[in-house]
Prior knowledge:
Blueprint: E1 3-10, H1 21-36, E2 45-49, H2 53-57, H3 63-67, E3 78-81, H4 87-101, E4 106-114, H5 120-127, H6 136-142, H7 159-175, H8 179-193, H9 207-212, E5 215-217, E6 220-221, E7 230-239, H10 240-245, E8 251-260, H11 270-282, E9 291-293, H12 299-309, H13 317-323, H14 339-342, H15 347-362, E10 376-385, E11 391-401
Parallel strand pairs: 2-3, 2-4, 9-10
Antiparallel strand pairs: 1-7, 1-8, 4-7, 5-6, 8-11, 10-11
Helix pairs in contact: 4-15, 8-12, 12-13
Amino acid sequence: MTVSILGTGITRFAQRPDVTLRTLANEAVDSALRDAGITAKDVQMVVLGNATEGYLHGQEMIRAQVALRHSGLAGVPMINVENACASSSSAFHVACMAVVSGAAEVILVLGAERLSHPTKRRSFDALATAVDLSEYHELASAVGATGADPDLQAASHSPLMDLYAAKARAYMDKSGATDDDLALVSVKNRAHGALNPYAQFQTPVTHEEVMASRMISDPLRMLMCSPIGDGAAAVVVASSSYVARKAKPDVRVVGWSLTSNGADIQAAEPVARAMGSALNQSGIEIADLDVVEVHDACAPAELWLYEEVGLCEQGGSVELIRSGATKLGGRIPVNTGGGLLGRGHPLGATGCAQIVEVADQLRGRAGDRQVEGARVGLAQNSGGILDDLDEAVAAVTILAVHD
C-alpha cells in the first residue's frame, strides 16, 4: 500500500505566549481537515509530535488527548511522540508505517509547540535537554564549547547554540567557509520567509544587518540563530487509493527514513544514512529534486547539511551558497518557506511544517515563493545532539507528484 498527502494546515509561527497548545493544535487541524475535504469523523488515528509541553507547561502526558479533546476527534486512537526537534517528522513516519501496514487509512499528523515562556531562561533550559545530560559537560569540554554550562548561562544565552558554534568553528576550518558565507544563508532564508505569510519573520534582512547583530556564541550572531516561537502544523496522510477516491491531487510519500546517533564510529553521519535509506526506497536521485527543506537551526548547519544531504560534494557548500543555486530561482531552492531561521522553530512543529512546505510546493500553491514545475521534494529534520556533535535523530521524507 502506498501513502499520499491528503491535506495540510499550518498556523502563523510567532511568539504567542498567551495561546494554549489546544488553540494552536486546533488551528492547524481545522485547516488541514478543510484542505483534505474531510471531517474529524473520517480520521482513524492521530499522531502528535511535541517536545517541551511537559518541561515548560507541566503537561507531561496525554498531550494529544488534552489538546484535541474538544475538536471532534475524541475517541480516535492517539499516539504522542517526543523526539526533540524531530518530534513531528517522527510522528509523520509513524503514520506512514500505520497506513502501509493497513492499521488505518486516514491519519492526522500534528506537530505543535509552545516554546515561549514568561521566563526566557526556562525556554533555553528546555532546549538544553536535547543532549545526554549525564555527559553534557564532557561533550562541551571535548568540543571546546567552554561556555556551554546550562546552570551558569545568562537568561539570554542558549547552551545548545554553544554546541552548534563549536561544530560551526570546526566546519569553517575544514571547508573554508567564512562569516560572510554564514550571513548569506541568513539573508537567503529571511528573504524566503518574507514571502511566507505563516513565517515568524515577515521582513528580509541585509548582509550588513546580519553581521552587525549581537554575537551569541562565536561565530554565531543573533540573526544566524533560529528563534524561540510557537506554532503548529498538520498533515493528513492517507492510502493513495483513498486519495484517488477523493479525486485529490496525488502527492505521494515515496521515501522516508528515521535514524539515530550511536552507530559504528566508521559509519556515515545520521543524516547521510537516512538519506541513503530514503533514496533507495524512493528510487529518486538527488538530481531529481526540485525543492529541499533542511534543518537550519543555525546558519552554518544549512551549509554542512548541503553536503550530508548530497546537494554537493564534501567541501562544496561554500561554492553552492555563493553561487545563488539554493535561492528561489536557483538550480535547487532550499528552505523556500524561510527555514528555521525565517519561518521559525517551534520544536515539535518544525518537521510537519517542512513537510507542509514541500507538499504545498508540489501542489503548486506556495504563492510568491512557488518553485515553477516542482514535482519532487525533500524534507530533512534533525533532533538533539550527541557524540561528535551529530544529530541524535535524523529524519528524511521524500514527496513526489504522482500522475
